[in-house]
Amino acid sequence: MLRVCLKGANSAARKCLCGNGVPLHPLQQCRSYTSGGSGSSAGKIVAASVLTVGGGVGGTILYANWDPKFRANVEKSIPYSDQVFGLALGPAAPPPVINKPRKVEPVQISSMSEMWKDSKQPKAKEVEKKAEQPDAEGPPAPAPQETLEEASAQVAQILSAIGEVPSVPAPGTHEAEAVPPPAALKGVPAAAAKCTECEHEPAVKERPEGEVAARLAEQDKAEQDLLTSLSSNLEDALGSTAKVTLQAIGAQEAALQAIAQHTRQLREAMEAEAPPDKKSTQWRVLEDALSERSRSVDEAGAAVLKAKAELDKLRGVIDGAKHLKIAAARPSILAAEENLHSMVVDLDSVVTRVQTAQSEAKIVSQYSELVNEAKAQFQKELNSITPEIQANWKGLTGKLTQDDLNSLIAHAHRRIDQMNRELAEQRVREQIHIDSALEQQKLEDKKALEVAVSTALEHNREQMRLEQEKKVEETREVMEAEMRTQLRRQAAAHTDHLRDVLKVQEQELRSEAEEANPEQLKETEYRRLTQDQLDSFTLDMNAAYARLKGMEEAIDSHVIAEEEARKAHQLWLSVEALNYTLKTAALNDPTEPLEGAVQAIKESCAEDEFAQALATALPSESLSRGVYSEASLRARFYAIRQLARRVALIDETRNSLYQYFLSYLQAMLLFEKAQEAPPAKLSAEDLDTFKLLSYAAYSLEHGDLELAAKLVNQLKGESRRVAQDWLKEARLTLETKQVVSLLSAYANAVGLGTTMAP
Amino acid sequence: MSEKELGKKLDRCLADSAVKLGAGLGLGIVFSVVFFKRHTWPVAFGLGMGLGMAYTNCQNDLRAPYLIQRNIKVSNATKY
């Protein structure tokens, strides 16, 4: 193209120059022009080419700088371009591919942390922080696992605790029953009772009579012991309580006496007008009485408390005894309860008496106080009027003057008036006071009445309950006694009846035996002999019959065995026929259809499920069309191999015509081993088309069609498509061969099974 | 047989290219003679067109198994 242009340019130049009729100079010019043109055109060519190449390279570098993918492509396709790019642009940035997994991980872990409970969130956050690192697959899995383990441990603890909890009340209930009796009754009998109860619970089977009687005797003894101990305890408790209660009552009585004495003496002191020294002795005596009274009252109070405590203890003991539920102890329990009740009643009555006495004493003391006050007041007034006169003014007669007497009389009159006035006032107030006092008294009376009524009611109720229990106890005893007598009577009647019947039977048998005379003896002897003969005959007959049976069975089993053998032989023959049809394959032609042979097999083993299943397992194509022999497949393989080598480069992404050309070129230039032994495990680099084909060729040469088919199955792309049909045929052949070998093995096994060794 | 398919395709390619080239040549000659005053370029153009069409046809034929067809929906397509 360039030469054409050049020629065109030359001719144009020559025309324009020579057309003008220019002399040789122009030719020189022309020549120089042309030579210069040629030289300059060469230079132009060089310059143009250099420019083009430089422009191309520069443009490539600039574009690679802008687009890293393009740079990567160029580096891949043109060798040593990566060094050029490195010199010009610097190293390429690492591809930013890791970001996506990193972004995904925190999301996953946050979702996982949502799954855990709130209390576990700090741990999950910790886990998140750990996951920031690039290789964070390890920590998230163990940390949630740890928390899971902890949670499961906690749950296990809770479950075990829950499991433990129900077990606690069960022994508790059992123990609660056992605790009061040992508390009330000390020692062995209680333990014995508990043990017998425990023993009765687990073993619920029947025991022999002797054992039962022994156990009953034991139980009775234990009950007796229990009863004695219980009664002794009750008596002790009762005795102590009675003593204490009597003491309390005595103390209360003493207190009552002291109070009464004190009151009496107080009244006497009030009313009597003895001379001063006697009065002082009287007051001293009164003080002693007062102290006596307070002391005895305190003693009585303490005694009452003690008595009350003892009574409570006794009540506890009685309750414990009641819990044991032993029938025989009931009367003693009842008696104890009665005693308790009476003691309580007595104590209450004595306490009420003491209280009334105390209230009376209070009234008297108040009265005495008032009187003392009045006396003191009078004394003061008298002293204010006649200071020099002493208390016992009655003895003075002549010592007083007229004025003193007058003033005394006047004072006395005034006092009388005042007294009268006070009296009137007092009378008026008295009424009001009396009314209010009556009201108060009524209220107090009502309260006291209620209290008394309730206590009386309680006592009554208690009394009635005790009576009722006593009556119940009596009736129960009566009933028990009656039942025992009735049972005894029945047992006696039964024994009598048995004795009579036995006696009668004895009589009858004896009479029968005596009737037997010698004739009968002979007859029995004769009968015995014939019986013996018959027995021996039947024995012989049985033996003969058994032998006959044995022989028949032997013959039958022989027949069966022969039948089996025949069937096995038939099966074997049909399988051999099938095998033979497989050998009828000519090169490049399939075998005959296997239909007929398979039909024969199915008929020959109609009742053999395994053979039927195998016969139906043959692929339909082999039945209808037949299969190719291994040799033909081998031959075909080499053509496949050539073709597969040629299209090795073609797959889904590369399939243009240019790629085909390249693929052909590769097949021409690439040399691999014709046959190479395949390794036990295929690695990634073994999956190259050429290698696979050489492995497959090796396997085929060594007769391993299965391995060859497996290797050919690893081809990809166009090579695979080319080998598809061959692969299908190889599969068919392999399937058919497998089924047929199974059938022949089975036929052989069946045949072996039916033959009997001589 | 799948191994014979490639051979058949290539045969078709050659036949097709022969036809296309011939047709291109013919049309080129015709056009050159009739419309373009016996220049050579219509012939070259026709030959080029014929070659190009043959090339494309061959390529499409060889690619046909790998094309994703538009009448098959993704949800219905079976996976190999």
TrEMBL record, chain A:
Q: Which residues form a coiled coil?
A: 402-429
- Name recorded for this polypeptide: MICOS complex subunit MIC60
Q: Which organism is it from?
A: Oncorhynchus mykiss
So which domain of life are we looking at?
A: Eukaryota
Print the keywords alphabetically.
Answer: Coiled coil, Membrane, Mitochondrion, Mitochondrion inner membrane, Transmembrane, Transmembrane helix
Upper lineage is: Eukaryota, Metazoa, Chordata, Craniata, Vertebrata
| Pfam families registered for this protein in UniProt | Mitofilin
Q: Where is this region: Disordered?
A: 111-147
Using the UniProt record, give the first listed, main subcellular location.
mitochondrion
User: Where does this protein have compositionally biased stretches of type Basic and acidic residues?
Assistant: 115-133
Q: Which GO terms describe its biological process?
A: cristae formation
TrEMBL record, chain B:
Q: What is this protein called?
A: MICOS complex subunit MIC10
User: What membrane topology does this protein have?
Assistant: Single-pass membrane protein
Q: Which family does it belong to?
A: Belongs to the MICOS complex subunit Mic10 family.
Signal sequence bounds: none
According to its UniProt entry, the function of this protein is described as: Component of the MICOS complex, a large protein complex of the mitochondrial inner membrane that plays crucial roles in the maintenance of crista junctions, inner membrane architecture, and formation of contact sites to the outer membrane.
Q: Where in the cell is it found?
A: Mitochondrion inner membrane
Which residue windows are transmembrane per the record?
18-36
Assembly: Component of the mitochondrial contact site and cristae organizing system (MICOS) complex.
Q: Keywords on this record?
A: Membrane, Mitochondrion, Mitochondrion inner membrane, Transmembrane, Transmembrane helix
Query: Does the entry feature the keyword Membrane, yes or no?
Result: yes
Primary subcellular site in the record, as a coarse category: mitochondrion
GO CC term, one of those recorded: MICOS complex
